[in-house]
C-alpha cells in the first residue's frame, strides 16, 4: 500500500515558509519521497503500519495549511500514468521486501 500526501501550506511570511519547510522535512524524516513539490509518497507493506505516520502528520499540519492523505493500493499505483513532457514513462514499482536472517 502507498500513502500519498498532498499539501498546500501558506508561505507568505518568513515564519510560514519556515513551518512549510519543517513539514517537508518531517515527511522526508518519516521516509516519504518527493513526487512533486507538494506531493510525497511512502510505501507500506500493510495498511495498519501507516496509521502512526498519519497521526504524526496530522499533529504537525501548520495553521491554515491543507493536507490531503490518500491510501493507494499497489495495483492502483501500478496503473498510474506518468509523463515526462509528451512521453509516457513507466511508474515506479513497489520496493522489494527486505529480508534479514
What does this structure look like?
The protein is α+β, with helices and mostly antiparallel strands. It has a single domain (2-89), classed as 2-Layer Sandwich (Alpha-Beta Plaits), CATH 3.30.70.240. The chain is 30% helix and 29% strand. The protein contains three helices and six strands. It has helices at residues 14-29, 51-59, 74-78; strands spanning 2-8, 33-36, 39-43, 66-72, 82-84, 87-89. A four-stranded antiparallel sheet has the order 2-3-1-4. Strands 5-6 form a two-stranded antiparallel sheet. The longest helix is centred in the first third of the chain and has 16 residues, at 14-29. It starts with a strand and ends in a 12-residue tail after the last strand. The mean pLDDT is 88.
What is the CATH architecture term? 2-Layer Sandwich
- Structural class comes to alpha+beta
Tally of contiguous helical segments: 3
Radius of gyration: 15 Å
User: Average pLDDT across residues?
Assistant: 88
Strand line-up in the sheet with most strands: 2-3-1-4
What is the 3D shape?
A: globular
Amino acid at each position: 500500500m502507498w500513502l500519498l500526501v498532498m499539501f498546500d501550506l501558506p508561505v507568505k511570511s518568513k515564519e510560514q515558509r519556515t513551518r512549510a519547510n519543517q513539514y517537508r522535512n518531517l515527511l522526508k524524516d518519516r521516509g516519504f519521497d518527493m513526487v512533486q513539490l507538494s506531493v510525497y509518497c511512502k510505501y507500506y507493506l500493510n495498511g495498519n503500519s501507516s496509521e502512526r505516520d498519519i497521526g504524526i502528520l496530522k499533529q504537525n499540519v501548520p495553521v491554515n495549511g491543507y493536507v490531503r492523505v490518500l491510501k493507494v493500493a499497489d495495483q492502483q499505483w501500478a496503473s498510474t500514468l506518468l509523463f515526462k513532457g509528451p512521453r509516457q514513462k513507466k511508474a515506479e514499482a513497489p520496493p522489494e521486501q527486505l529480508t534479514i536472517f
